[in-house]
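Appendix C reproduces, verbatim, an entry submitted by the partner laboratory led by Prof. M.T., so that reviewers can inspect both the input and the predicted structure.
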Amino acid sequence: MKEFNTTTAQPGHVDDRRQPKQLYLLFFTEMWERFSFYGMKALLLAYMVTQLKFDEPKGYAILGSYAALVYTMPLFGGFMADRFLGYRKSILYGGILMSIGHLVLAIPQDWSFFYGMAFIICGNGFFKPNISSLVGTLYTENDPRRDSGFSLFYMGINLGAALGGLLCGYVGQRINWHYGFGLAGLFMIVGLVVFVAGVRTMGEKGLPPDSAALQRRVGGVLKTEWAIYGGTLLVIPVIVALFHRYGIMDYIMFGLGILSVFYILFIAFRLEKAEKQKLYAALALIIFSTFFWAFYEQNSGSLNLFAMRNVNMNFLGMELPALSVNNFLPPGWVIVLSLFFAWLWPWLNKRGKEPSTPLKFGLSFVLMGIGFCVFYLACRSHAADGIIPLWTFAAGYFFIISGELCLSPIGLSMITKLSPAKIVGLMMGIWFLASAIGEFLAGKIGSLMSVPEGVQNNPVLSLPYYAAILLKIGLGSVALGVVLLFIVPLLRRWMGAVR
């Protein structure tokens, strides 16, 4: 059995002002990895539409497939970490694959685009769920520092994302697209160096659950560890083939979603009542999160093109690159607001007024819905010229990101609190699978905002294609938030003492 409550502090004796020092190692590792990941992602849709000359529906479909696969692979990577590799080896191997992927994207050849993305998808599967799970090992159960610690960790994610979106977006759009991809790769390597240099401070945390199992030979030939590494490489050409036949992704994503729900229920039936109900609560929140990401992830798809076509990018006399601005604003707001939320939750906790996790989830949908309605109102107010002011664009993101901070870092913490210790990595993978399905749905929602080629350069004619769907997203998000608020009492009962 893998033990997650490995710190020596006891409940009631935790210094709730000081975070574990290992959090800062993981903070900077994740920061540079997210620089590379989001810096590259900022370029994808615009690169496909403007450089590869894909029509918009195809571009959205490939972006949705890529994003879906990026967040599906953690299901596999989390399972392998729980059963064989442990968190440390998984993070290192994932980082190596992602570095290769970014550098392949920097090669100006036709074949490099899909192969580079395939390497990143496989690498992210090992890296992403396991670094979050490793953060969870730093805290005891019901440690009051846990939620604020995950909020600080989430700030590191978004500091990297802000810098990556800003710099890679600028280099890609203004200088050379492949230089932008290459810059992302260099900072992925920086993240790996940071992790390797400081990993010894983790002590026994994140080591393989059974070192002997890694040495056993598969078929009498390869050690299990090397079989896992080699088997992952064999997946890369399969992923490339999926990009060329992206219609198959409908069956894959929804099939995986259904199988995951039944698998969690199968596990739950074998547990004691308290653990079973906690798992039910986690499953309900995971399902709701799917819809959150379907709406939220317009920022890396349709809102990229919306910013390029329909947002006034003039700031203090400077014409800013639209890709840089759109991909800087979300993580930029996270950096600012994370400091507030990292203070707010412990402050409310001390006074017995901190919202429960389900209540935070409900608020996240309402706040995000308000943000999309701000976008819509800006479109209505500037229909005559088709260009909305930059400040209203930033204001809409303020509400969307406030919603994100009530769900995403809280969700990471929720998984580590509600999951049985043996399957934390797997449940983290399923959390990211929900994100994957959401990302896939985001591509389908984004395709509804596809602008015909003849009017793409006319803001007055292109604006209505965005405005109508932005309103529907806003109203749909608020409606889901209200539904979730109604079932908060039931979810709290299932969660027991966990809040």
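The first helix runs from residue 22 to 50. Additional entries are available on request from the coordinating office.
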